[in-house]
Amino acid sequence: MSDVLVLVDDLTAAGPGTPLPARTLHLLATAAVVGRPVAVHVGEAPLGPTAVSALAAAGAAAVISATAAGDPWERADAVTALLAGLVDERDAVAVLVGAHRYGTDVAARLGVALGTGVVTDAVALEPDRRAHKAVPAAGVTTTVRVDGVLVATLASGPATSAPVPPGTVEPSEAEDGEPTAVVPEAVVPEVVVPQVVGPETAAPRAVVPQTVAPGAAVPHDVVELPTPAGAPAGPRVLERTPRPRTGRPRLTDADIVVAAGRGLAGDLTPVTALADAVGAAVAGSRAAVDAGWLPHEAQVGQTGTTVSPAVYVAVGISGAVQHVAGMSGARTVVAVNSDPQAPIFQVADLGIVGDAFVVLPQVVAALREQKESSR
Amino acid sequence: MGDWEGWETGRWAVLRPIAEPAHSGAVRIAVLVKQVPDGELRLTPGRTVDRDGDGVLSPLDEFPLQAARTLAAQARDRGDQAEVIAVTMGPPDAVDALRSALQLGADRAVHVCDERLAAADAGSTAQVLAAAVRSLAAVDLVLAGAASADAGTGLVPSQVAALLGIPALVGATKVTVHDDEVRARIDDEDAELLMAAPLPALVTVTDHANPAQYPTLREVRAARTRPVLEMDLDDLGIAPPPVRTRVEQVVADPPRPQGRLIHDDGTAGLVLAGLLRTALRTATATAMAGNHR
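^ Those are the sequences you sent over. The predicted structure of the assembly is below.
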């Protein structure tokens, strides 16, 4: 079986003991459909044994751990060169990255470096260099075939289930409505520790062999990262201001997303209270973000983030086509809006015509009551 | 073929950087723009975006145009020269998008129009736009929208930068030029960044940047006399770039089953609570199954 390279999130940044991000699980499960997933990790330090085992349990057949100093945005070129080198070396058939901005930038560059086609916002892969891509604005899903190595960015999806592309699922599975999770057998990982040699890291660091499961053979290897040929001075990050952690899951990782729109008139209390009651992420429409009620990265839609949670609750959102394009992959859509004519109701599985300031607190109270009574 | 050698091997050579900024102060800015269908997105029988019918300048391209206009105005205020050039690739009527760009402050425009590009994908578009920018010579800064409003792959700007061998800053909400470097404020997933890159460089500008100032009647009139240079692949001196993605199949998404619509009579919250409870149980069950595999 051929290798599929998967560029995973930086797991060292999140700190020890943090579970794998949902989108990392989703990437590995999707890659496993067409080949042997090889997790490629780039971070300040090599992965520890726990993270390697977690990746293996999530389906990675091998883990490649590259260390690099500096900000991820300063090394997109180097990461591209690393991936291009690994494609050649391992004769990989595909490279899969997240469909966030960084992943899209790396995928675009990799397309140039490999002279191949890139599919963005794929929802699934198929053998023989094919990917399924949803085009919500046209109400269709396309099958795209690429000449050369398939490079794809994967749209976010529920970690707990692989998306169901046309033609890859038996009817019996599709009918019973169960998530069609692709869970490959856990395998003992091989750990390779190459180094990203940045412009300022002349001397390679010592490579620390990783320990994994007892008795496992752990080959490790040092791969010289090719410095991109003739690369001019690249971008520098002058300031990085991390956003305060809200304690809520990341938008693309959340099983449930509660989104606020213009209808809330600036008071997001019912939305945040509901989100916190169910461990959901908080999102917003363009109107809510432009009004300054939420930060830019919370925007769902064509020019914001595309999400595919299990449940999307749109509160006070009218449902402009640009917004719907960013959330139509949700398994269940709930809309709460006081306007019965709001277009959002056309895409909602459950529509509630009512006042969010009445309905949402009732939901929170009902969930709390049930929690207490079950103790 | 000169700089384009390497195609045959399937590896696109990284081109040498575009000309070094020859003059301090003066700034030449190329803005990559695109005509998109006005209204609903349709696909042709050939499974490409249907570009017949009325097209408009992609609304998202107004943001890089405004950023270019601001930078040019700042340079002129300093007494330096500045020039903004809108560049597009598209069918003959894509010239309308360039006319809009001229009204929004571009000084001149370049239209790459060649029927051999009818089936272009992101990769081939990037090659053509990179060649067009190179043909302008001495461009200091390339600006583009963060995505187009139709196919919206978001690939083209990064690929143009890679082909030109210049650094790219993607997703800027604010762009400034300081001496020989460009700086951009970027809202990333978990952080706000201030990034810098030496010129020449490419920056994509999001719709959270300053919106375009609408043109005055005088600007609209002035735009009519500004030149649009039409070029084909022969003018650019390149062969049709290979198209490496093919849409094989288009399947209409199944219509969503008719949803349930309820008017809140005081109990709607309980219905939603029930739905969320079920979703939470499913998520927990799956997560636990995952832990045991």
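Chain B is about 30% helix and 25% strand. Residues 126 and 160 of chain B are 5 Å apart (CA to CA).

Shout if you want it in another format.
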